[in-house]
Amino acid sequence: MKKQLILEDGTTFTGEAFGAHSDISGEVVFNTGMTGYQEILSDPSYCDQMVVLTYPLIGNYGVNREDFESIHPALSALIVKEYADIPSHWRSTSSLDEMLAEREIPGLSGVDTRKLTRLIRKYGTMKGTIRPVEANVEEEAAELSSAHFRRDQVARVSTADAYHAPGQGPRIVLIDYGTKHGLIRQLIQRGADVYVVSYNTPPEDILKLQPDGVMLSNGPGDPADIPEALPTLTALLKAIPVFGICLGHQLICRALGAKTEKLPYGHRGSNHPVKDLQTGEVAITAQNHGYTVNEASLAATGLVVTHRAVNDQTVEGTAHESLPVFSVQYHPEAAPGPDDANPLFDRFFKMIETTKSHV
């Protein structure tokens, strides 16, 4: 079945529908990773986004049950140059087409993803919609231009109920803004006693769990859309060691008075170089964000910049001058992906140990 992707500026791309054949709208973004499409599909940070994969052949190793990063994928659609309908891998349990159909996610193949990516890089992320080829392009584009998409992504992907993954090590409360399973795996591998709580859990309920540390997860959307998180974080940052990742990083900065702003087309991929300003080392990182912290606004927050993106010099990490608090914009838990930044979890555990020894 032929379908077309219509962008808000009227640009169209015609392709072949696969997965679910439903019509859908969302923000069109691109990811530059060569592998890991199953992680991308199941990353809650892509909630309501139509993801363009720049690598030309997708689906050749199929889909397996182990590599999901969430139970319910939240992205709007997947757009590819070519997908493999007959996968070949010993762990594969279904094809990409079957998985998308089962999860009711539309796919579009045969798209010139190189041209589409260049458009996004030139003009920034755009709203888009997948419609039948008979649809009126002018009407659809005009409707997109004035459309206001939902802004409650975090509420929809965060866990509704707290849950516990027992361990013998430090007790970590993970605030779930749209966490990937990889974050929980990293904590469990280090023996942590993990409590995962909803994004809107009051600080007094978190402190009742007597955590040794708090981790703030990744998540979708604009950090300004969850102002209710800031009073909670303001209370926690003064009481306990905190480590924030991606959206969690942005929320720490906002809670301490900094501002965030939207990037033209975001950072999404598994090959982004980041420089550690303290050691001078460059790590290859996995990233998925459309917003960044405004560096000038950090001046009176007590936070210092610790990491910087090599490609565009944006803020990629901060640490507080006096509190046991640090954060990174990228994903040290990426799986599959580079593991250069994995020791950040060890740094968090060391911070907890040091803080407890000084109490």
Report on this model:
With 359 residues, this protein is an alpha/beta fold. The chain has two domains: 2-146, 3-Layer(bba) Sandwich (Glucose Oxidase, domain 1); 153-357, 3-Layer(aba) Sandwich (Rossmann fold), CATH 3.40.50.880. The protein has ten helices and 19 strands. The chain has helices at residues 37-42, 96-102, 113-123, 137-146, 153-157, 181-189, 203-208, 229-237, 247-255, 343-357, and strands spanning 2-7, 12-19, 24-31, 49-53, 57-58, 77-79, 82-83, 106-109, 126-132, 163-165, 171-176, 193-198, 213-216, 242-245, 260-276, 282-293, 303-309, 315-320, 325-328. Strands 10-12-11-13-14-19-18-17-15-16 form a ten-stranded mixed β-sheet, sandwiched between helices. A seven-stranded mixed beta barrel has the order 1-2-8-6-4-3-9. α8 crosses α9 (247-255).
Question: What's the gist of this structure?
Answer:
By secondary structure, the protein is an alpha/beta fold. It contains 10 helices and 19 strands.
List the helices and strands and how they pair.
Blueprint: E1 2-7, E2 12-19, E3 24-31, H1 37-42, E4 49-53, E5 57-58, E6 77-79, E7 82-83, H2 96-102, E8 106-109, H3 113-123, E9 126-132, H4 137-146, H5 153-157, E10 163-165, E11 171-176, H6 181-189, E12 193-198, H7 203-208, E13 213-216, H8 229-237, E14 242-245, H9 247-255, E15 260-276, E16 282-293, E17 303-309, E18 315-320, E19 325-328, H10 343-357
Parallel strand pairs: 3-4, 4-6, 5-7, 6-8, 11-12, 11-13, 13-14, 14-19
Antiparallel strand pairs: 1-2, 1-9, 2-8, 3-9, 10-12, 15-16, 15-17, 17-18, 18-19
